[in-house]
Amino acid sequence: MIFNLEGLTVYFPYEYVYPEQYKYMLELKHGLDAKGHGCLEMPTGTGKTITCLALITSYQLAHPECGKLIYCTRTVPEMEKVLAELRVLQAYREKHVGKAAEMLALGLSSRKNMCIHPKVADEGSRESVDARCRRLTASWVREKHLTDAASEEKPTTDLCQFFEDYEKEGPDAVLPAGVYTLADLREFGRKKGWCPYFLARHMISVANVVVYNYQYLLDPKVSSLVSRELEKNCVVVFDEAHNIDNVCIEALSVNLRSQTLEAAGRNITSLSGKIERAKQTDARRLKEEYQRLVNGLAQQGVLRNGGGEDALQNPVIPDDILREAVPGNIRRAEHFVAFLRRFVEYLKMRMRATVVEQETPSAFLAHLQRTAAIDGKTLKFCYDRLTSLLKTLEIVDTEEFHAISLVADFGTLVGTYQNGFALILEPYDARYPNIPDPVFQLCCLDASLAVRPVFEKFQSVFITSGTLSPIELYPRLLSFNPVCIASLPMTLTRDCLCPVVITRGADQQGVSTKFDMRDDPNVIQNYGRILIDLAATVPDGLVAFFVSYSYMEQIVSKWHETGVLQQVMQHKLVFIETQDVVETSLALDNYRKACNCGRGAVFLSVARGKVAEGIDFDRHYGRAVIMYGVPYQYTLSRVLRARLEYLRETFQIKEADFLAFDAVRQAAQCVGRVIRSKADYGLMVFADKRYNSHDKRGKLPGWITTHLHEQNLNLSTDMAVQIARTFMREMAQPYDRGVAGKQLLDQAACDALAKQAGFGPPKPPPGVSGSAMLPGK
């Protein structure tokens, strides 16, 4: 339908719109009109993606000055879903508006997901694909190939023909208007003989919509490579952003282990050998590099990459990079390598500690200065200087030099930031105190550091998800001022959500995963009884989430000994998530097959795991979900303790509040997996007596708490099973979609709302006649 939303003509590709979708569009429009940021929670299964795309692309059409839409997702399947929705929307727009509505939309991912070179694409890991690609596309590799060809010798280097053909086309290598998924880009690349990865990177600057991973904006090492040229008037959307603070922190944190330092030592020896060889065969290169460094890294653009050798960039946020000459003591290659050796030896010495050490970056730098005579200013240039050296020595296999890159990353970050970071040295893993396994962690404690440049650079940034409650905490954690902040309810014609809180077993013994109760045989038995009874009651698929892998392993082994699993298997097959991605994918595949053939299945999974974050159990794949316990983080973790202390001192966020908020958002994410549309239905079981307290329950999203009625609280196992039976019987009745339609807004309802707000019928975009927009056209 095409309707007027407060003066904006919105192109929505379906005949009906949910009331919450209409409200969501209003909030988005207010944010765009105010050129500000927003924080929006919208229930899962209510068409958040298409609503967001329809409103923002319609806004782009009406306001040509509005920049491109940067849509950030967490995974490749999510990216593909967004592009599929966009394709439907684009077909609708072109049907009603014609050529004026043409757009270019594309997804961008790593080389591993986009490469079409037969030998490179077969490489296993992402790092090895990147390294193999650089070996074929680096500028000096190509120059050497041309020199050999000119002298009529047999070339000693291979080139990537796809990259060469793309480079030959130059500015003429463009994508026609359209919506391109990763598969489409690969197909187009094969057809034209062009490299899809570099083509997509090039087309970002002219695309109307770009869909890619969070890291491309939040991780400075990647964003300064890919997203540097994006203009200020872009609109950024972070979808499924309930964990965005953790992504920000990971982007600026570095962990070093003994193995890393050993490998870094080998890298340094290798670099020394290459420098000596370069002195004997091509001293000019080293002299030229020295001269450039005297004049300053940034001004000379030495680190601006060309061709295919684009190594990762500086790990520091762009505004914090020093724009000045590199210190004299690391300008010469051999001096810099000696400096790195000294720094690695210092870190090895620190790793020999036998007690846990925690300090600030300032204290670390003071000790480093006293012990190894290395100052903070020199450390700041570590990463850029290493990148420059690798380039000068024409090293393309960055995978081989990953360890020394990590050390340089660590040094640059610790030399640049004084606040918002902590250094923690743990000489052994807490679970195995007798086995030395030291890890030196540079922990970012302030999520706002990584996301601040995004808020400052772009006109409008929206954070959205189905589980952002309590929503007012996000602006504090990420340190921004939203112009629109809203948590939208879910309009339902029937109660297709049934959340219940089980606080005790049939024996009236309380159930909880609290540390002092989790090993209690009665609790384990009662948890088993919940699973047996629900497996017998609920049709098709049932998903259970545990608080951790170790707890799941412990409880499953006890259930096996006591015969619980055998009783469950009488009703359904049992599948378990493991830490191995391939095993888990296979288990999920077989789980779906069991649900499809009517046998029914139970999937045992872990909160914060792969399944909890990215897999939908829609329709018959998830008719009930059990959340065993409250998924708190490991509260004895020193990294977490340091972050809690920082949040308390800097943002006045209490420890208990943050821990409860973090645990409940994970629980909400788990139980939300079963509702993926309004025609869907599912039972949500919170199996822990702590959910009965308002402190926990009140932090759940509003669209869950509105269905959490008084009679569904403080239940025993047998009472919950009775409610489950009644709910499943009600849901099994024929579903009158006509009744459901009464809640929806059709063309007439949207026009009436526009008229009520004082707006007329929708207007065509500039340069399009009104008759072209008629719905019948």
Keywords:
single chain, 777 residues, alpha/beta, 49% helix
What does this entry look like structurally?
With 777 residues, the chain is an alpha/beta fold. 49% of the residues lie in helices and 14% in strands. The strands form four sheets. An eight-stranded parallel beta sheet has the order 6-5-7-4-8-13-3-14, with helices on both faces. The protein has a seven-stranded parallel beta sheet with strand order 17-18-16-19-20-15-21, sandwiched between helices. A four-stranded antiparallel beta sheet has the order 9-12-11-10. Mean pLDDT is 88; it is low at 298-305.
Oligomer: single chain
Sequence of strands across the biggest β-sheet: 6-5-7-4-8-13-3-14
Major pleated sheet:
8 strands, parallel
Helix content: 40-55%
Distance between the termini: 12 Å
Question: How much beta, percentage-wise?
Answer: 5-15%
Decide which structural class fits the backbone.
Answer: alpha/beta
| Mean of pLDDT | 88
Rg (C-alpha, Å)? 29 Å
Number of strands: 21
Stretches where pLDDT is under 50 for at least 5 consecutive residues are 298-305
Helix tally? 35
Shape: globular
Brief description of this entry?
By secondary structure, the chain is α/β, with parallel strands linked by helices.
